[in-house]
Amino acid sequence: MGHMGESLAAERRYDAFLSYARADDPDFRQALVDGLDRAGRRVWFDREAMPNCGTTFGQEIRQAIETSDRLILLAGPAAMSSGYVAQEWGYADDIGKPVVPVAHAVAFRDLPDRLRHYHGVDARRRTVDAVVAELARLLAEPVRPLGPCFHLPHRPPHARDRPELLEHLSSALLPDRMRPEDAGRAPRVTALYGLPGVGKSTLAAAFASAVRTRRVFSDGVAWLAGGPGFRPLATARELLRLAAPGAHLPGSDGEVDVALAAALGGRELLIVLDDVRDPDPVLPFVTALGPCGQALLTTLDQAVATALGAVEIAVDQLDDDAARGLLADWAGRSRQRCGRPRPD
């Protein structure tokens, strides 16, 4: 039975899931599907592949996305205003499936911000054959694996999104957000600092676990607990066991910096140092990283960030509206009623 399940799963693998709005140019859509089929690419197209096996439409869509290597988004005017289409490509992006936008009758600037950082296909002034050829080339390339996560904490219930701070972290830590002339000499460490309880660790974990972050750091994302009891030797040995299996493990505090630099200098690795109290014990972890590595730390004390030469990002308390929303979520009540008098 197990072998049969594996065989069925293998048979149902697709090169791409096609996400589209039916109101957008059906002739172009069908020509694209037919062209990719002639090119030997398996595309999940609901008009041709949707089964009825007792599962719901939504279940089949999710499964089809999960069993496809990529998602092709036919970005037309109707697709850009469709909530269903947004759910499809959003789910694919959330679970680590590359999204390939095909701009047809819309400009790239009309794409959602999440998709503007990915390479897309401009189909506005090209023949269908040319678009098919480029898509076939993209589908033939191997998907870059997501970096593994080591000891990352789970997102706490009712955590609030902080998009402006996540954007700051992306600009500081992700090479694709840097100008080429800055990427080589940019600081290798970024620090979130602020009062206890403002959400520094939650924000760091959200950034570290994001698909885009894990795509950049293919050797992994490692969470290291700091605090007053931070032990550099034990932490270094654990980090090397996880992120650099087979590397020499330091036997004393004096060997930590050399062992870390030898094992991590060439790796695409993000190290998150949570609750750093003193810059000196964590310095070997920061200096060990090479041009493809980054460190993110959280601290109560801005002076720690300054001492490490970090990009400093202040994390303030939630504003009143966000704080009321958080309390409402915890209390299980609507945001509108939280902190407001009841109607008579």
UniProtKB/TrEMBL annotation:
Listed SMART domains: AAA, TIR
Superkingdom, natural source: Bacteria
Biological-process GO terms, alphabetical: signal transduction
GO molecular function: ADP binding
InterPro entries: AAA+_ATPase (IPR003593), NB-ARC (IPR002182), P-loop_NTPase (IPR027417), TIR_dom (IPR000157), Toll_tir_struct_dom_sf (IPR035897)
PROSITE patterns from the UniProt entry: TIR (PS50104)
Domain TIR: 12-139
Protein name stated in the entry: AAA ATPase
